[in-house]
Target: AmmeMemoRadiSam system protein B
Amino acid sequence: MVKHVFLAIFTFLCLSSWFCFSPRVVIVPHHNIVADIRSKFFQKIRFLRPITKKIVIIGPDHFSINQKQISFTDTPWSLSDSQIPYDRSFDSSGITGNDRLLKNDHTIYNLLPDLKKFFPRATLVPILIGQKLSPSDLEPLYQKINNYCHFDCLLIASVDFSHYLPASLAEVHDAFTLSALQSLNLNKILSSEVDSPQSLYLVSRFAKDKKLSFSISNHTNSGVILKNPDIETTTHFFASFSKKFISLEKPPVSTKLELPFSIDRSRNLNTLGDRFFYGVDDISTVSNSNNFAVTVTKSENTTTQAFFPLLKVGDTVSFIRGDAKTALIKNYFDSIIDPSVTKDHFWGTLTYESKN
Model:
């Protein structure tokens, strides 16, 4: 008898923990260069969630001219051998229905084979978020999601992170975003260099209201994957929010961009790109003879600088790439004789250990 009571209590505690501490929110990329990693991540999430009856996907609207709208579709999604039904209990009032838009956006459809595989009985509410929506614009949608998404619902942000920048610069922007997600700093999240800050804002606010903690499973960078420091990259987070027995505060990380000269942002959208100018805590002008743009990422234990040679012709500024960039970085790094610094000529970084 005592054994049965003990077993019942043990089972109850295990199931309670499984329910209480299972991931409620996940962040995944829709960029299919990391499709295999995404599939393994969903498999892991499936194991950690005892019940998933509902799935809500939110992510960027890639193709609409009107980027101040929220769109959804209430029709089933047809896959090669099955369908994923829409859940009509979701309150879609005030949201624009646009079946063609949703069905043609990879924000949603790139995730569906894995969702059907690992959550075969779940219904789906797919939502695309315009990229010019303010927090006040998002408030009605947030309330709908908050009222709908309970323990049997998995909330997914389908978001690619840094875009169109050299790999080492993207890493700095990702450090800024990671710090914002870990601290659930909603203002910083809205300033993050990702393809849908609005989607990250919604899931982070949901996590903050539910007192969930952030965990990152993987972080990838297409430039690193392809071993190319100069190509335009896309970066990816595989992360979740869940309850924790003990939630440890992460040490702060600061990021900044130092420009060698003043740059007219409006005149360089086609060369440096708009994303060059945000996604860090601070931007300043610090002249140097090599015309390097320098990023600085400072954590508890290390400070990392990344160097990007710039070419200025009139008001137009562009990245120097290839052999010319390699030579400029090598010449500068070779002039540094500090034995405590770690030099990475290929990625153009210097790393200093913090002194206690």
Summary: The CA atoms of residues 47 and 248 lie 24 Å apart. Confidence is low (pLDDT under 50) at residues 9-16. Residues 22-242 form a domain with the Protocatechuate 4,5-dioxygenase; Chain B fold (CATH 3.40.830.10).
